[in-house]
Amino acid sequence: MALLKITGVTKRFGATAAVDNISLTVDRGALFALLGPSGCGKTTLLRIIAGFETPDSGRILIDGLDVTALPPYARPVNMMFQAYALFPHMDVAANIAFGLRQDRMDRRRIAARVEEMLALVQMSDCARRRPHELSGGQLQRVALARALAKAPKLLLLDEPLAALDRKLRAQTRVELTRIQEEVGITFLIVTHDQEEALSTASRVAVMNRGRFVQIGAPATIYERPNSRFVADFVGEVNLFDGEVTLRSDGPALAAAGFDEPIPLPKSTELPQGIAASLAVRPEKLVLSGAAPAGFAIAARVASIGYLGGGSIVHLSAGEGRALKAYLSGPAASRFDRGAAVWAQWPAEEGVVLTE
Amino acid sequence: MIGLGRLGRLALIAVPFLWLALFFLLPLVIVVKISLAESTLGIPPYKPLFASAGGFKLQATLANFALIASDDLYMRAYIGSLGNAALATLLCLLLGYPIAYAIARARGPQRQLLLFLVMLPFWTSFLIRVYSWIAILEPNGLLNGLLMKLRLISAPLPLLNNQFSVGLGLVYSYLPFMILPLYGSLSALDQNLVEAAADLGARPWRAFLGVTLPLTLPGIAAGSLLVLIPAVGEFVIPDLLGGPDTLMIGKVLWDEFFNNRDWPVAAAVAVVLVAALAVPLLAAQRLLERARGA
C-alpha cells in the first residue's frame, strides 16, 4: 500500500529544472533510497516532501492526505538533516523533546517518550550532554532519535551516513535498518553513496538531472542496469560502446579498438547496425595467463589494488582502453604488473544498454 | 601557536595588555585619584593626594562622593540617564532586530547595499547629524511645516527640547550599533536549525522564540551594551535636543568640569558612573559566557 505518492512534481530554479516532472510511489514500511550524483535534484525532492520548497506543479500525498500546500510544521513527516542540525543550546533530552513539546504533550509522557527514544538509539547515558560534547556517531544517533520521537508517518534522511567515518558508517548502516524494522516507519533516504543505497534500501530510485532513471530492487539496479548512466554510477563497470552485428553464432558488438566483435548475451534482440553499449561488472571478468579458447581481450596488468577480501586489477588493452577486473581472495597474486593476460567473461553476464 | 616561542607569545599578549594598561587603566586610576582630592583654585584645580610639606601625609577625602550622595540633583541625573539609555536600548533592540533579520536574510547584492545604508550615517559628523534634527523638529521646522501643510495639525507640535527629542536622538544615533552585532549573530545562525524546528512542528513564532532568539543572545547582549554604555554618558544629544527638564549625567559632568571647574566632583561623578555601568556589563558578560558554553 502506498504511503507516499508523488505525482508530476516539478521544481525550477531559474531556467533549470532541479526536479523534472517526477512521479513516485513508496510503500508503507519500506526503506526507500533516492540515489544520484550531487546536483541531481534528490535533495530538492526531499525538501519538497518535507515542505521547505514549494513545487511549481504536481502533488504530494502522504497516507492519502494531500500535503502539497501544507507548511513543514503541519506535515506528518520528520527529517534527519545531513549535518544533523541539533540545537546547540539544548541538551540531548531537550533536543529529542523539542518536537513533542510543540504538540503540547503532557510533561510525563514527553519524559517517557524521550527515555524510550534514548534507549532505541542506545544513548540513555548521554541525556544531559550538549551536542558539542558528543562524537559524530553520537550526534547521528541523537538526530535520528529526535526525528523519530514524534513517530512520523514518513522519515526523511538526508545523507544520513555521509558525516561518519568508514567503519562507523558500516555499523550505523546495520543499526539504521534494525531501527527501521523496530519502529516500522517508512524511511526515505537520500544518498550519493551507491553502497549505502544498495545495502540499506529495499528499493532504490536512481536519479539524474531531475528525473528518475531507474527504480527497482538493489540487486536489479546492480545486475540489470537499464542505462549507461545507471551502470556507470552504481558500482564499478567496464563499458564497451559499438554497433550490434548479427553473426551466425549469435549477436555481438563491434566496438572501436577491438579487432573481433565482442559476443553479446544470446537473448539480445537488437537489429543489425544499431548503436549499443555493453556493461560488464569487474567481478565477472576471468583472467588467464595464456590465451584461452573463445573470445578474450588481450591486455597488460597496469596496477593491482589490494582491497583485503580481494583485489581490483587494472588492465590496459591497448589504445588507452582500460579494463577493471575484481578477483576475490588471493587470486590476483598470480599476476605481476606488466604481465600479459587475457580477460574473458561468460557472454550472458554482460548487460546490453541502448540508452 | 606554531613557530612562536615562549618569548614571542609573551610579546604578542603584551601588546593588548600594554595598550589597555596605558590608555584605559592608567586614565581610570588618575580619575579615581582626582575624585579623592580636594578642590582648589589653581592649575590643576585640585590638591595633591600626598602633602609634601610637613612630612608624608595622605589628604584623600570622600567629600566629593558625599556631595553626590547628598544632593539629589546627581541621583536624579543618574536615574534620568540610565532610564533614557535603557529605553533607547530597548527601542533600538525592537527596531534593530527586525532590520538585522531582514538584512541577514537578504540575497548577496541586496545585503551589501542594506549594510552599506546602515553604515552610511557614519560618513557624516555625529554633531551635524544631531544638529540637523533641530531643523527637522523645531516648531517651524520641516516636520511641523509638512504636517501643517497637509492640514493634519493646526498648531506646531512640541517636538524639540523635550524627552521625546532626546529619545529620538538617542535611538537614531545608536541604532547602527545595535543592528551590526545583531546582523553578525543572525547571519551566522545555521538556517538548518530553524528548518529543523519547523520540521519538528514548531510554528514560525515558536521556532523564533525557541531557536533563533536564544541562539542570537550574544548579538543581543553585544548590541545592547554598545548602545547602553555610550547612551548613559551621552552629552551632545541631551545638550542639543534636550529641554530644561532633561537631566542627564553626561551634561552634569560637563557642567562640573567646564562651568564649575570642580574637577574632583566631576571625577567622582565619572567614577560612580563607571561603577554603575559595570553592573549591566558584568551581567551581559555572564549571558555571553553562558551562550558560548552552549
How would you characterize the overall build of this protein?
The complex is a heterodimer of chains A (355) and B (294). With 355 residues, chain A is of the alpha+beta class. Chain A is built from 8 helices and 20 strands. Chain A has helices at 42-50, 92-102, 107-120, 136-148, 166-183, 194-200, 218-223, 228-233; strands spanning 2-13, 16-27, 31-35, 57-62, 65-66, 77-80, 154-158, 186-191, 203-208, 211-216, 238-247, 250-255, 262-263, 275-280, 286-288, 297-306, 310-316, 322-328, 340-344, 351-353. In chain A, helix 2 crosses helix 3. The model of chain A has no long low-confidence stretch (mean pLDDT 92). Chain B is an all-alpha fold. Chain B has a single domain (71-293), classed as MetI-like fold (Orthogonal Bundle). Chain B is built from 13 helices and 2 strands, in the order H-E-E-H-H-H-H-H-H-H-H-H-H-H-H. Chain B has helices at 6-35, 63-70, 72-105, 108-119, 126-137, 142-149, 163-188, 191-199, 204-215, 217-232, 236-241, 249-259, 263-293, and strands at 50-51, 57-58. A two-stranded antiparallel ribbon of chain B has the order 1-2. Chain B is globular, with a radius of gyration of 24 Å. The two termini of chain B are 26 Å apart. Classes of the chains: A alpha+beta (355), B mainly alpha (294). At the A-B interface, strand 6 and helix 2 of A face helix 8 and helix 9 of B.
